[in-house]
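Reading a protein record of the kind used here takes only a little practice. To see the layout at work, look at the sequence and tokens printed below.
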Amino acid sequence: MKSSNKGRMSANLVRGVLFLLPVIVTVLIVGFVYNQGESWLGEATAYLVRLLLPVSWLGPFTDGHIPGLSLLLLLGIIMLLGWISSMKFGRQGLRLIDHIFLSIPFVRAIYSAARKVVDAVGDPKQSKFQRVVFLDWPGRGTRVLGFVSGEVTNASNGEKYLVVFVPHIPNPTSGFVMWVPERETTDAGMTPQQGFSLCMSLGVLAPPSLPITNATKPRD
């Protein structure tokens, strides 16, 4: 009887932890972003509030520090940068920033790796990857998601091969580049952005069904 009660207590403890885990992760991430917003923009936001609003309107926030306002300002700045980067002069500014960071030793390596990831999964029009496929790896019967970056022809028999990048997770800036016969791959039916989201979520964002194998061509 005692062992049964202990088993139920342990099961309830595990269920409680699993219930709270996503809540805790969400609170920690939101708290981190909120604290960063306050750290970077808190004083500037408070100054703007005091400058634009009469003290009589501020009530208990006479110093101008209104909770959450810095976070909203940070989100607004990010959206503004996204809008600017979609314009021609904005893209020219990004190239200037690239040049500055790539000219600094040590920083160059970090920035270059981060930039490659952004270019790969960012604007579909600028993506270096053409499509996403499933292929056999590391062995027969096991499928992995790969990103097609090019196509080549086998000089010996004219067969079409795909140049496929299989990223390491959780560091997608490294991985394997493989030359795979196109007939041995299956189109994953998703964009490169969706494919990277699926990989970075450790498969959590996988849809209920995927074309993992090609139904029209039976596998050997």
User: Anything to note?
Assistant: The mean pLDDT is 80.
